[in-house]
Amino acid sequence: MTELISPLSARLSRITEPATIAMSKKARELAAQGVDVISLSLGEPDFQTPQYIKDAAKQAIDEGFTFYTPVPGIAELRQAICDKFARENDLHFQPNQIVVGTGAKQALANAVLSLVDPGDEVIVFSPYWVSYEEMVKLADGITVPVLGALENDYKVTAAQLEAAITPRTKLIMYSSPCNPTGAVFSKEELGEIAAVLARHPRIWAVADEIYEYINFVGEHYSLARFPEVAERVVTVNGFSKGYAMTGWRIGYLAARADVAAACDKLQSQFTSATCSITQRAGLAALRGGRASADEMVAAYRRRRDLVLGIVRDIPDLITPTPEGAFYIFPDVSAFLGRRTSEGVIINDVNELALYLLQDAHVAAVPGDAFGAPSCLRFSTASADEKLVEAFRRIKVSLGKLN
Ligand code: PMP
Questions:
Q1: 43 in ligand 1 pocket by Cβ < 6 Å?
Q2: Complex ipTM above 0.90?
């Protein structure tokens, strides 16, 4: 018999599928068997894309705007992104510093692959978004996770950052508002981080601001606003969350012109520009400002408060108050080591997530995928009734563990 030899490259075998996607697959399988599963595993707004954005896309089709566009995006869109940065973030870019791609995800991958050499260390503020670590692996870099303390709402401090820096450090990566924790860095906290970076001129930063609009505390601050580090910050943003446009696949980065040019070159060999029609939709979205986002944010805030009201009533679950995004990220360590009513020991958060899927029929994502093996992530981007029912069931199921 011939031996089965994997044809896959070593690179690919090092990469894992996002736990978020793996968990939602499991939830779908269970739902296909007729089980009433509530999936709180994916980070996706449950709102429709605003009508004025859809209309712009229809118009683009009707006008025959269906051809390849310049790789980093159409000129009007890159200009509109510069205008948005100037208006809302006090950041001042030229269009040649903007690269539009198929989602913030591609913008992040462009930045990592453009900046990281094999063996470079990338400090990833942890808990972190699942794809950061895998992107660093693809670039043959080394992820150095630095875990923010629960008492500090999981936010990494400047002192922690300083302590993690070595001569090999090339990049730091974080999201604010943060997926999975919902933490938002204040101007002061970012200022302290900028001061550390100012002392290390070789280190770059990727600031993932995709949840910018979903912020319950008010001001969003960008690391690139600190002049001492501005040149070395790649700011990533997009449309998926703020405009409920996950399926359209559009996001962007702003960086120093040489780095933006490198991202453009990379993207030109992988995907070229994102969809022409989507770009027109993105342009309309930016021209419409953030009013539609503000309506959604009111709903996200209401749901956060609703969910916190219930989970704070569940003994032994420690849940910091998210200041943005649409997740809660409770610490569940008190439940690890407990037994189910059948006597099965729950050893880790993966087993706890599976138990909740099987017993409560609620899908969550185990925190180890985010570098936090004592937490579970629940999305709160669901209808109020679903959230109430989901956390009622979770309370019952957790209550059965002893
Ligand atoms: N960054 C973070 C922190 C995210 O949560 C997500 C989406 N889940 C992305 C980037 C990717 O966004 P997009 O859909 O625009 O690619």
A1: yes
A2: yes
185: CATH: 3.40.640.10
Q: Is there an atom of ligand 1 within 6 Å of 240 CB? A: yes
What does the DSSP assignment read for 21-56? Answer: HHHHHHHHHHHHTT---EE--S----SPPPHHHHHH
CA dist list (Å): 51 to 82, 281, 292: 24, 10, 10
Crossing angle of helices 276-287 and 75-84, rounded to 10°: 30
Q: Which atom of ligand 1 is nearest to the CA of 250?
A: 15
The SS3 assignment for 363 reads: strand
- For residue 239, how far is its CA from the centre of ligand 1 (angstroms)? 9
pLDDT digits over 116-142, tens only? 999 999 999 999 999 999 999 999 999
- Give the domain-ending residue among 267, 289, 311: 289
What total number of domains does the chain contain? 2
Pocket test for ligand 1, best of 241, 274, 379 (most atoms within 8 A of CB): 241
Q: Are residues 107 and 90 in the same domain?
A: yes
Task: Assess contact for 122 and 112: CB atoms under 8 A.
Answer: yes
| CA 69/CA 61 separation, integer angstroms | 14
Q: What domain range is 196 assigned to?
A: 51-289
Shared-domain flag, residues 285 and 371? no
* Whether residue 303 sits in one domain with residue 270: no
The pTM score is: 0.96
For the record, the structure tokens of 199 come out as 């002392």
Rounded Cα distance, 218 and 323, in Å: 9
Residues 32 and 108 in one domain: no
